Amino acid sequence: MVFIQPHYWRSQYLGQKKDITVNSNCDKVELMVNGVSKGILSPDQSNFHCVTFNNILIEKGIISALATKNGKQVKTEIVMAGEPAKIILSGSQYKIVADRGSVVIITADIVDSQGTHVYGANNSIKWTLSGPATLAGPSVYESDINKIQEMEGVWYMDMPVSNVIRSTGKPGKIHISVSASGLTSGALDIEAEETVNDNSIINESVLVDDSRIAVAKILLNVKRLDELPGEIKITGDEINMGPSEKTGYSTMIREYIVKNNSSADTASIEFRTLNNLLAVQLANSNGHLSAVDYNFNVDHYNNCRLISGYINNTKLPPFFKEGLKKFYSEAIISRGVEKNAGEEMNWLNWIPSGGIVVIVQGDKTNPGLKGVVFAKSTRLEDIISTVYPHL
User: Fold this and answer.
1) For a Cys-Cys bond, which of 21, 34, 302, 353 suits 228, CB 3.0-4.6 Å?
2) Domain 2-79: what homologous superfamily?
């Protein structure tokens, strides 16, 4: 066997030199980048069958390893993925018996427009199910990738991930879809076939749901307020805009939204975030956007606008308001994080009114920003002395 540790073969490392590690139980391993040899090393017990090729330039394309043992060769390769484009689903089976003991493991992955797995993709994803089955796991997965020094266990880091569906005992088609912001959703159908119970030996009645108590399971809080502002309406139409570039799609989807939603605030940060997100998705899907995917992103936009409207009504400093709206736009619209607008409003109530916005200067800080005080240190004493130099 031969295995290339894939961490550095990603687009964010293009142009950098990295050490590539390969595991193998073969006598020798040759590493190649786009068909060009980068050297031959010999794994053995002294290096725990783990060899490292130093200072390999990360290029767009394919990295491969050719290993040889006793005259036989085995090869593995990694294709560098492009930008995340769509979700694909696979199931442990596609036909089940319609009884309560039938389960299917559904695996979701994020791939680029060519179907290549995107290493490190950690989008928030939402599972939707219809038909005679139930989800055993949560309907929303949010990555724990940014949890640091947490005591609790890890739920989900990056793709691929799995969920389990269970038959309700009734026959019919089970439809599963998984959605994420800015990505083409994945869908899968499973057929639950009716079965005839063999009661020739033991006569057993069919289970019914009356008086049954649901099994306790982990549920993420994804409740929303009952009514969201419909600044942008959902649609039942498929969107097909033909071939173009991202800039062209940006203009076309903007015109489409404005034409059908005259009240949309095109100058808001939420609209700009949504417009850019949909333009990227259209570019990754050759101009096609399903009604399901469009509505999924619009729903997050409307939820974000509800929170933004509440931020506008606070007495917080204008610059701080803009920072909050940028934060929520990135989290809710760009990353698809589920937020309960009511809970966020309650949290915002705890922020004191008025105040002074302080920015600790860094290499990329814009010194021309108005309405803020600049500090050179994160130490509370230094910040206080900057804001109140007379103390």
Assistant:
1) 302
2) Immunoglobulins (2.60.40.10)
Residue found by looking up tokens 């269970």 in the block: 166
* CA distance linking residue 146 with residue 205, whole number of Å: 50
Residues of the chain with CATH 2.60.40.10: 2-79, 86-193
- 248 class by beta-carbon count within 10 Å (0-12 exposed, 13-18 middle, 19+ buried): middle
Q: In sequence order, which residues have a C-beta less than 8 Å from that of residue 327 and are 6 or more positions away?
A: none
Among 289-303, 309-323, 331-345, 350-364, the range with the most confident prediction by mean pLDDT is: 289-303
pTM summary value: 0.80
Instruction: Reply yes or no on domain 86-193 having CATH 3.40.50.2000.
Output: no
pLDDT: which is higher, 165 or 371:
165
| Strand bridging mode 358-360 / 133-135 | unpaired
CA dist list (Å): 99 to 163, 176, 201, 216: 19, 18, 19, 21
Distance (Å, whole) CA 186 – CA 176: 8
Residue 375 DSSP class? E
> Which tokens belong to 236?
């039942």
Q: Does residue 240 carry a pLDDT above 80?
A: yes
Tell me the torsion sign for CA atoms 329, 334, 340, 343: negative
Q: How far apart are CA 353 and CA 244, in angstroms?
A: 47
Tell me the per-residue pLDDT of 316-356, one tens digit each, with 9 for 90 and over: 888 888 889 999 999 999 999 888 888 888 888 888 777 77
CA atoms within 13 A on the CB side of 337: 15
